[in-house]
Amino acid sequence: MTSQSGDRVSVADRTRYDVGAMTEGDVYKLLSCAVQPRPIAWVSTVSAAGVRNLAPFSFFTVASRSPATLMISIGERIGAPGEPKDTLVNIRETGNFVVNIPSADAADAVTASFATVEPDVDEFALSGATPIASHSVSAPSVLESLISLECELLQEVELGTDTLVLGTVTTVTSRPGVLSENLHVDILEHQFLGRLAGPFYTTDMNRVAQ
Ligand SMILES: Cc1cc2nc3c(=O)[nH]c(=O)nc-3n(C[C@H](O)[C@H](O)[C@H](O)COP(=O)(O)O)c2cc1C
């Protein structure tokens, strides 16, 4: 086999990383480089006191097709090791959340909602996203998102520094025209936002059929 540049791939040339001997920060960088592009869960929640919250999570995927289950991985609060992020606090208080799928043109708003602010700050207001009532959960949905998946908390799994949150999807809403009648999506017409390593996003959704 040859590499992308046309060179022959040799075993001896492969660079090795011993994860156990690396710092937490470097392992995080290694994982972020290796697993990309990643989809973005733009997670909306509401606290018991009624304050709305919005934050992006790219350690996110489908956990089961049936029952429809999503998984997000939530790390420690930035700058406060051992403390939970507001998203997790709210999910624990209310037992629900919404995974909103942002379009490529929402990159600025997604970044704005990344801010670690006091729990009483409404991050919809901060990012310019429009909250709308959801159908089956108390957490609001994001009007501008392509698709919103309303979830009931199923289970939390503590895994070192992070908490895996599994949510059962109860109701899904989509922007008009995003999904066709037979549940196909034209990804050139409706561009999804992906996360690359470092501060980079991708909106490049060239399709290769195989
Ligand atoms: C594109 C993007 C993806 C992110 N993915 C994650 C993630 O998967 N897990 C995580 O804990 N934090 C992730 N972050 C950082 C959180 O979004 C940030 O800590 C969050 O906004 C904290 O908000 P909260 O305290 O209101 O929950 C990501 C940030 C960005 C910009």
Automatic annotation (TrEMBL):
<dbReference type="InterPro" id="IPR012349">
    <property type="entry name" value="Split_barrel_FMN-bd"/>
</dbReference>
<dbReference type="Pfam" id="PF01613">
    <property type="entry name" value="Flavin_Reduct"/>
</dbReference>
<dbReference type="GO" id="GO:0010181">
    <property type="term" value="F:FMN binding"/>
</dbReference>
<feature type="domain" description="Flavin reductase like">
    <location>
        <begin position="34"/>
        <end position="195"/>
    </location>
</feature>
<keyword id="KW-0288">FMN</keyword>
<dbReference type="InterPro" id="IPR002563">
    <property type="entry name" value="Flavin_Rdtase-like_dom"/>
</dbReference>
<dbReference type="GO" id="GO:0016646">
    <property type="term" value="F:oxidoreductase activity, acting on the CH-NH group of donors, NAD or NADP as acceptor"/>
</dbReference>
<keyword id="KW-0285">Flavoprotein</keyword>
<protein>
    <submittedName>
        <fullName>Flavin reductase</fullName>
    </submittedName>
</protein>
<comment type="similarity">
    <text>Belongs to the flavoredoxin family.</text>
</comment>
